[in-house]
Specification:
Layout lengths: L2 E3 L6 E3 L2 E3 L17 H13 L4 E3 L8 H13 L6 E6 L4 H5 L4 H16 L4 E6 L8 H13 L3 E6 L5
Parallel strand pairs: 3-4, 4-5, 5-6, 6-7
Antiparallel strand pairs: 1-2
Amino acid sequence: MHYTQLGNSDLSVSRICLGCMGFGDAKNGQHSWTIDEAHSREIIRRALELGVNFFDTAIGYQSGTSEQYVGRAIRDFARREDVVIATKFLPRTEDEIAAGIRGQQHIERMLNKSLENMVLDYVNLYIYHMWDYQTPLYDIMNGLNLMVQAGKVRYSGISNCFA
């Protein structure tokens, strides 16, 4: 396996990242085609055997069950310090906005749930999954920075957004 530095970070990642959107309870989320935990574990274990150390999941993948599967497999098959775990969070919901939940609070709540799902103390990369037009960018950036300062996130990123 070939490895590279992730951007300007100190993270050394395999050139292949295992995307985990296909893992999760098919009865618990937006996709009916995801695979169960036993098959997910086989894929994760084989990826680790082949030198993959970079795993990407999201709280939105099958209502967090992808994160749960990934977390359990990593605990069983690898040392935490040898893997890079990325997960993503979704924008605030209409209910959260109506309840006055600010961007920083939302990020912390989502991250805490992801950490609980994976039984981790931190994630290496926390990614803003898609643009939230109802939350000021300052709230997003400040929320991410607060999670870095708290030691729950090493690096932050953004996906599915315009440059």
